[in-house]
Please model this.
Amino acid sequence: MQGQLVDTKDLDAVRSEVARIYQELFPSGRPGFVNETFGWVTDAFAGRYSDFQKIDAKYHDLEHTLQGTLAFARLLWGYKEASAEPLLTQRAFELGLLAILLHDTGYLKRRADAGGTGAKYTLVHVSRSAEFAAGLLKEKGFAPNEIRSIQNMIRCTGVNADLGSIPFADELERRVGFALGTADLLGQMAAPDYIEKLEILFLEFEESNRYSGKGTGSGLFNSAAELRRNTPVFWEKYVLPKIENDFIGLYRFLDDRNGRNKYIDRIQANIARLQQELTGAVARV
Model:
């Protein structure tokens, strides 16, 4: 199951796969839960919720959220199948699913916000996502402690998040949050068009930098080419240590029954392809 290809550009395909995982893990779970929660989020990204516009960030779009959501559901499937402790509960899965679906709603703009795209909120999008989640979930009747749990999980996706300062209610909540952070990284980097999207990602960083008053450039990189050159290092020096150490190696629950991790395999293939492109570009100069 972990290696099955699902087109993350196809909302229905991702939703069906997540619903299948949910029902397999929790046969007594509410049948319409996944469809309902996906509906809340797709409405928000389509500009059909409250005072918010349709998403206009080009990298952190609905597909980006679907990439992470699929990886997250699969990781928790592996976690429960392994009977890992603390044992995964139905409610923890449900709250985690809401957290991954809502984790980038901080890129959504209010209707009166006419300047730039939602990418300008990159530096503060995690706190904005937590705020958005609180507003939506309160309307849907979620308890305050459940909303806090979802917000804690969303905070795990911050690039420089101080994980030790997040007030998790218990160890299971912490682990589901770390699973979310893991899935957010692996889902996007394993995408077949990840390398092609790096230029779009740079433009988001650049817009955020301008919005924060820091001038041109992305703050970290001066060009898309520089971002591309640094991506292999980002994988090796940031993502791998992050998922191994900070997120306590939960990515291993994405391994298939043969011990192969298709997400890691696809990321390594993307990095190898990028390195070949970079080497070819140097050779042509």
In short: The chain has a mean pLDDT of 94.
